[in-house]
Amino acid sequence: HVQLVESGGGLVHPGGSPMLSCATSPRYSTYCMGWFRQAPGKEREGVAAIDSDGSTSYADSMKGRFTISKDNAKNTVYLHMNSLKPEDTAMYFCAAEPSPAYGGYHDGLQLRAYEYNYWGQGTQVTVS
Fold first, then answer.
1. Fewer CB atoms < 10 Å away: N or C end of the chain?
2. How many CB atoms within 10 Å of residue 101?
3. How far is the C-alpha of 84 from the C-alpha of 90, rounded, in Å?
4. DSSP of 29-53, one letter per residue?
5. Residue 110, CA distances (Å) to 47, 49, 75, 99, 107 in order
6. From the CB of residue 116, how many other CB atoms can be counted at a distance below 10 Å?
7. In whole angstroms, how far apart are CA 127 and each of 31, 45, 48, 90?
8. C-alpha distances in angstroms, 125 versus 18, 32, 92, 115?
9. Confidence of residue 26 (pLDDT cuts 50, 70, 90)
10. Residue 50: closest CA among 61, 58, 60
């Protein structure tokens, strides 16, 4: 079972640059890890993903502002956010799905939430 624990959310001023962390187990190295977000009344949307080989993908609206990275030694995935706007306010979730390179059925880099089977509880980011 892949456990995902997000941290780093909170109240951020516009223009702020917080970093979210997702702590997980050593098995995550063979998974594609994704960050998603969901604002009240809106559907969950993909933010960024990083695959087992370090390949990354970003939603078009996040490119240039958000950076996803991982530290295999710490079993942690990060989302560094820059120049936050009020419309970035949302619950941010970490998710994991076995990488196709290790037998997974889905390409997590496509940022399709329904293809991710493991989810954290989320961390709230409020930009105000």
1. N
2. 12
3. 11
4. GGEEEEEEEE-TTS--EEEEEE-TT
5. 10, 8, 22, 12, 6
6. 23
7. 30, 18, 19, 9
8. 9, 23, 7, 24
9. confident
10. 58
- 100: pLDDT strictly greater than 70: yes
Residues paired with 4 in a beta bridge: none
For residue 2, what pLDDT band results from cuts at 50, 70 and 90?
A: low
C-beta separation of 47 from 62 below 8 A: yes
Amino acid identity for residue 104 in this structure: G
Match 């998603």 to its residue by tokens. 36
Q: How far is CA 117 from the centre of its chain?
A: 14
- Look at 28-32, 65-69, 87-91 and tell me which has the smallest mean pLDDT: 28-32
| Rounded-to-integer distance, Cα 35 and Cα 39, Å | 14
42's tokens: 């809106």
